[in-house]
Amino acid sequence: MEERKGFGTNFGFLMAAVGSAVGLGNIWGFPNKMGASGGFTFLIIYLILAVCCGFIVMVGELAIGRKTGKGAVAAYHAISKKFKWMGWMGILSAFLILFFYCALGGYCIKYTVVNIGDLFNASFGSGAAAELAAANDTSVGAEVFGAFIGNPTEAIIYGLIFVALTMLIVLGGVGGGIEKVCSVGMPALFVALLICIIRACTLPGAVNGLKYMFVPGWAVTNGVIEKAPDFLTVLATAGGQMFFSLSLGMGAMITYGSYLQKKENIQKNALLIVIMDTLVALMAGLCVLPGRFALDPNGALGGPKLLFITMQNVFDRMDAVGPIFGIIFYLLVVFAAISSSISLLEVIVAHFVDKARDEGKGDKRKAYTLIAAACVGLGCILVCADALGTTGFAPGNLLGMTGDLPTWAADWLDFFDMLSEGIMMPLGAMLMSLMIGWEIGPEVIKGEVEQSGHAMGSYGFFKICVKFITPLCMILILYGQIKEFFF
Ligand code: TRP
Fold first, then answer.
1. Which residue among 15, 18, 20 has the greatest number of ligand 1 atoms within 8 angstroms of its CB, and so is best to mutate?
2. What's the CA gap between 347 and 252, in Å, rounded?
3. Ligand 1 in contact with 32 (CB < 6 A)?
4. What is the pLDDT of residues 56-68, one digit of tens each?
5. Number of structural domains found in the chain
6. Which of 48, 151, 336, 414 has the most CB atoms at less than 10 Å from its CB?
7. 93 CB under 6 A from ligand 1?
8. Given pLDDT bands bounded at 50, 70 and 90, which one contains residue 54?
9. How far, in Å, CA of 25 to CA of 385, rounded?
């Protein structure tokens, strides 16, 4: 039987796992949520949740992956009677997230191209949008975005380019494709982020961005938001953000863990992934918010509009070097998105490749990667053609709903996001902690973690969390997520 090839080095594994965690969620989710939910207070709640739930589930996923040496479906099958179906939920989540993630990744490629156009005063820059903005009294970012959204064919082409890039890396396998790309790309992303932070924080007026992000209550006293959210809402916001940001609850870390060598230290790696993901989220805030407060004070603070309207305005208003920073910034975002989307595609591909290998059919990575990417491409086309719900076939329209549509029904992006991020991921993480705590027992995880020869120093803490604290927090988070999407 052919050998199952994994990560060559621990550094490569770490960069791939951090790459999976660092994505759009860090850039447009975290800074804004932190600012609107109480600055430092939010950060402390986030960190507590990251340690009591994020770290716990991360250790659990990596250990289950490495113990079984299988992708999500076979891993659950191998260790649990009651929860063996959960791997399939992971595969389904991976598809749903990829549908909208690739569409957004495509948008980011488009913005890189626009900024290259601006650098050379080319026709594919934002020149036409600037004229329209002056005529309509809007902003350049808004016009660029409007024109792009209004042209679904272009959005589809960029989305499919993103799918193709993801596919090419996954075709190369874990050691040859994913590890190589992330080992170079993640350090580069870090440097690019530092460059953007220095530029953003030295703009006049930048300090308000820092105050928004860090000073508790600043956003309310200064009228940026109307009223402070209550404690339960903050808890649910922080928890939901943490889960999505750490790529937990759907088998991505099980899959990556299954390629990890027995000699590597799972406990240390899990901690490093949580720390680096949080660090990049904070750094992303230091990059986008000062820019927003300095150069587009009325612009969006989070979500797609922050990335595709506000930030474009920031680069447009910067000065002659604006396009250069625009290119660095959007390339950084494209890479953050790709390093996440490859881990999502790998969840799907690993399952089918393992199955074929176990049945003695040899290495079918190429065939399965192509098929999976083709399916993702179809979903991505749907999200791009829907153009954020502006072309009349949003889920709500198809269901015949009238009046103001609730968020989940207003466009396909939010619909897929609601199912995956809102329901399946928190549910997956909750069931996983129940499975470890009450079905297979935390000592199984301890046994696997200690394979490397390092004692599991956090075992006492792990045991209490995985049995009681994590499932309890997960119920609150699930409740908060459902509330956010439906009400
Ligand atoms: N963590 C990614 C981000 O912050 C998104 C994401 C969610 C993800 N779930 C995932 C990535 C699963 C890979 C695997 O944007």
1. 20
2. 6
3. no
4. 999 999 999 999 9
5. 1
6. 336
7. no
8. very high
9. 23
Q: Cα–chain-centroid distance for residue 302?
A: 14
How many A from CA of 222 to the centre of ligand 1? Answer: 33
In a domain, 2, yes or no: no
Whole-angstrom Cα distance, residue 194 to residue 197? Answer: 5
Nearest alpha carbon to residue 203 among 356, 313, 91: 313
pLDDT of residue 2: 60
Q: Is 83 helix (H, G, I), strand (E, B) or coil?
A: coil
128 φ/ψ angles, rounded to the nearest 5 degrees? -65, -40
Residue that has been written with the tokens 């308000």 in this structure = 208
Secondary-structure percent of the chain, ordered helix, strand, coil, rounded to 5 = 80, 0, 20
Residues 80 and 439: beta-carbon distance below 8 Å: yes
CA distance linking residue 51 with residue 278, whole number of Å = 11
How far apart CA 195 and CA 325 sit, in angstroms, is 8
Domain membership of residue 3 (yes or no) is no
End-to-end CA distance of the chain: 53
Pocket test for ligand 1, best of 178, 340, 346 (most atoms within 8 A of CB): 340
Nearest of 150, 155, 152, 146 to residue 113 by alpha carbon: 155
Q: Mind listing the pLDDT tens digit for each residue in 161-175? A: 999 999 999 999 999
DSSP 3-state of 451: helix
Cα(5) to ligand 1 centroid in Å equals 23
Q: How far apart are CA 133 and CA 316, in angstroms?
A: 12
For residue range 270-316, list pLDDT tens digits in order. Answer: 999 999 999 999 999 999 999 999 999 898 898 889 999 999 999 99
CA distance 355 to 429: 24
Answer whether residue 171 is part of any domain.
yes
User: Given ligand 1 and candidates 91, 244, 338, 342, which is best to mutate, with the most ligand atoms within 8 Å of its CB?
Assistant: 244
**Structure tokens given for 145:** 């975005």
Atom of ligand 1 nearest to the CA of 425: 9
Q: What is the pLDDT of residues 172-182, one digit of tens each?
A: 999 999 999 99
Domain assignment of residue 4, yes or no: no
**What's the gap in Å between 22 CA and the centre of ligand 1?**
7
For ligand 1, say whether the CB of 166 is within 6 Å of any of its atoms: no
Predicted TM-score of the model (pTM): 0.94
Give the separation between CA 461 and CA 475, rounded to whole angstroms. Answer: 20
User: Domain range spanning residue 146?
Assistant: 10-486
Q: Which two tokens stand for residue 26?
A: 């860090």
CB atoms inside a 10 Å sphere around CB 292: 27
- Residue 133 sits in a domain whose CATH number is 1.10.4160
Q: Among candidates 233, 322, 268, 270, which has minimal Cα distance to 54?
A: 270
Q: Is 19 in the pocket of ligand 1 (CB under 6 A)?
A: no
